[in-house]
What we know:
The protein has 5 domains: 2-89, Ubiquitin-like (UB roll), CATH 3.10.20; 121-269, 2-Layer Sandwich (Alpha-Beta Plaits), CATH 3.30.70.20; 280-346 and 547-736, 3-Layer(aba) Sandwich (Rossmann fold), CATH 3.40.50; 351-541, 3-Layer(aba) Sandwich (Dimethylsulfoxide Reductase, domain 2), CATH 3.40.228; 782-870, Barwin-like endoglucanases. The protein is 30% helix and 18% strand. It is built from 31 helices and 37 strands. Helix 26 links the parallel strand 26 (633-638) and strand 27 (650-653). Helix 11 packs parallel to helix 20. The chain starts with a strand and ends with a strand. The mean pLDDT is 96.
Amino acid sequence: MRVSVDGRDVEVGExxxxxxxxxxxxxxxxxxCHDDRLSAVGSCRTCLVGAGGNIAAACVTPAGEHTxxxxxxxxxxxxxxxxxxLLVSALPRRAVETTHSELASVCHxxxxxxxxxxxxxxxxxxxxxxxxxxxxxxxxxxxRCVRICAEVQGTFALTLAGRGADTVVxxxxxxxxxxxxxxxxxxxxxxxxxxxxxQPGLPPGSAASRRLPTTSTTTRTTCGYCGVGCSLDVVAEDxxxxxxxxxxxxxxxxxxxxxxxxxxxxxxxSPERLTQPLxxxxxxxxxxxxxDALDHVARGLRAAVAADGPDAVAAISSARATNEENYLIQKxxxxxxxxxxxxxxxxxxxxxxxxxxxxxxxxxxxxxxFDDIDRADCLLVVGANPVEAxxxxxxxxxxxALRGATLIVADPRAVGLAGHADVHLRPRPGxxxxxxxxxAHVLLDEGLIDDAFLRERATGLPELTALLKEYPPEAAAALxxxxxxxxxxxxxxxxxxxxxxxxxxxxxxEHLHGTxxxxxxxxxxxxxxxxxxxxxxxLYPLRGQNNVQGASDMGALPDTLPGYHKVTDPAARxxxxxxxxxxxxxxxxxxxxxxxxxxREGRLRALWVIGEDICSTDPDSRQVAAALDxxxxxxxxxxxxxxxxxxxxxxxxxxxxxxxxxxxxNFDRRFQRVRPTVDPPGQARxxxxxxxxxxxxxxxxxxxxxxxxxxxxxxxxxxxFTGLSHQRLDHQGALCWPCPYPDRPGQAKLYTDRxxxxxxxxxxAAAPYLPPGEQPDDTYPLILVTGRRLAHYNSGSMTRRTDxxxxxxxxxxxxxxxxxxxxxxxxxxxxxxxxxxxxxxLTIHITAHTSPGQVFCAFHFPASGVNALTSDHADTVTSCPxxxxxxxxxxx
Length: 892
Ligand SMILES: Nc1nc2c(c(=O)[nH]1)N[C@H]1C(S)=C(S)[C@@H](COP(=O)(O)OP(=O)(O)OC[C@H]3O[C@@H](n4cnc5c(=O)[nH]c(N)nc54)[C@H](O)[C@@H]3O)O[C@H]1N2
Ligand SMILES: Nc1nc2c(c(=O)[nH]1)N[C@H]1C(S)=C(S)[C@@H](COP(=O)(O)OP(=O)(O)OC[C@H]3O[C@@H](n4cnc5c(=O)[nH]c(N)nc54)[C@H](O)[C@@H]3O)O[C@H]1N2
Ligand SMILES: [Mo]
């Protein structure tokens, strides 16, 4: 549509406001209650213009073809100035004088001096929260914070309280900010135009205005916590990170972030960071030079190989580390040591996704771009708690649901999304396969399937149809504990949607039959023709670690080379051998649990653990500790002296994501750049440099001297990555793999022509439901589910060393009120939990969010010993531990 602004025609889209037209015309207006991301309210009345003969607030006036807009003219300018002056007059001088806010800059532009600000409200500052502070005297009640909290974050923690000129923002719960529902996403800080809501470490108002101190530097990088892949701007001053701000152009986060990425950077400067190598001498870890540490590692590796051959050495690579680091360590293991004994924590996490998605569709990643989620009209969220574990994704899903998409949540617990769901199914842990089959049965029964798609693009329908006969809703209900009506309702919502999406997490994968769970979910998308078409968005596995997708993509796996080419495939080996100039061993290596078993049996003589706290986070910790005790050389490479590092013979101090150069791949297969923002502390070095250094003491040269060179080399090994380079990413921001061509974008949505299976078709799976490995009995009557909480991250090594510890200081055991009553338990009471494998100490938290008969805890405080409880049961296909089902009892 063409709109005339001050006599000039501009082109704007349908539904545009007059403010959009004015901006398109390149005219500036004050618009203090406006943020592009939010609904317009027209409350500050500073963007006054003439429209069709009337004076109107531009932000809430629809642009019209026949409504000419005027912005210029003394009268309009005076009106706008008066509106701003009126707001400013109630504020203290500092609102104009000392803040770096949007308001201060508006005043500057309009020539409004600090003398206009004559307010003396003196309400005092609320600094109860570690990250978000409120100076109510600076509030102009524009409501941007309230709207961003509701519309972008979906938390509804804020409100405007008071009347008339005394209206200010306040936590909806009343009282202090720290006691409110605030999840510290930082959205309010980023939109507040006056600095009333601000964060310590930055001048008030500067987060929103991006008028940062001139003494600071800003570096764009990718978050190093979870797999969402938020693009961040890290602000540093004097070599210290002072703030992290979300990148407004971030392809996944679009200017949003969460309490970890946005605020939990304090670990970087923790006095407990490892700053020099440590070597065990006379039973104690002592500081040594890099030279001595590396010599010891080299001697241990040589001794292991001399005693039992290359397969006596194994490495666990880090999904926290970059692609280039993962690439280098797998190359080291394969070409310098001569073994495929390399694995990463995908084993503990989404290895069933990789296996299941490959079997169903051909590639081990999510099928669609998360950007497309805005098209989804039905979200099926299974065994994932994105509100806490992938908060930026959680917020976007919630936003979709609030805008009308139907939401089906399948989780035994009342997780954050469940409160907004059309249907919340609460299956007994470990029964997803039966639940999915029940839903699939209804899809078939009610004809909610895509016959043409099934005929032309899928195989396996007859076998699945035969199997599904055994899963009518009533039978599925008996197996899962979900009422049959819920199963039918979920099937109808998913089955009738125009563009459904499946989002899932560890509640699907970390089970005895996790791969079957993934395949049973994939069946639903195939039955509906909702994958590889524009009639659906397939499956989004919410990959966990910042670079767990990438660690696997780079070949830090025992059976695949970079790009998932099988080590058993002679052609794949030959291609890698040509690039590496060294032979590649043909026999698949050991998976993580096999490494531990081999160590206990004396077959593994050296284990190099990079960025994983196996003593805390792998299951059945007693068995892990026994493995470490039995293995002659344990090298732990970490930021901190983790439980694993304390068990090690050599500890190597590593740089964190804030200190290094490379790339990560997020959950929707997106390569993004990671850039150093500050120097590592002391003698800590990047994992990249350390792997090179170890190779060098063994007399080997791994080539690729820089991370950029490593990605270039990897691009020559697998066609999936041929089109990728640091240079291109620097230029274009982010690229999804497969990316075979340097001059074409990567494939964000997969399988639009054909599936990547051998026959080009999607494969339905007819795997029956099988019960979980652990079962409750009279002695261990409760089912323990383990998972995540918002403020802490995995072993907690980083988040416990930030102010997140103030937000969440201990490990809790969530228990249903009925079970608590039966056990005579009070809230906050310490309790000992016992399983068939070990025991843990936790603090009782009574909540109906947990189902009766089940208890829930996280594993963010290793001292509690949660993984002493979990068993060595694991997914039968991939060895992913059954973390989600452990039979326990509460000791009196
Ligand atoms: N704050 C925070 N964020 C994180 C992490 C963290 O530690 N803290 N870790 C990161 C990592 S490594 C990962 S892998 C991801 C994990 O992210 P998620 O997969 O979302 O995390 P979990 O909390 O482990 O498990 C998800 C849900 O599965 C449910 N569940 C358990 N069993 C079943 C079942 O049988 N069926 C169904 N339908 N549901 C079940 C649990 O109740 C739980 O709510 O999070 C990443 N993000
Ligand atoms: N009970 C239970 N246990 C679980 C799970 C569960 O749901 N329940 N989930 C499992 C899952 S999904 C996962 S992914 C694992 C995660 O388990 P881990 O990978 O062990 O956990 P993290 O705390 O993410 O990181 C491990 C270590 O890496 C270090 N680190 C961070 N960045 C770097 C780096 O750049 N370089 C190096 N060298 N070190 C670095 C950290 O300080 C930390 O000590 O936990 C698993 N354990
Ligand atoms: Mo994970």
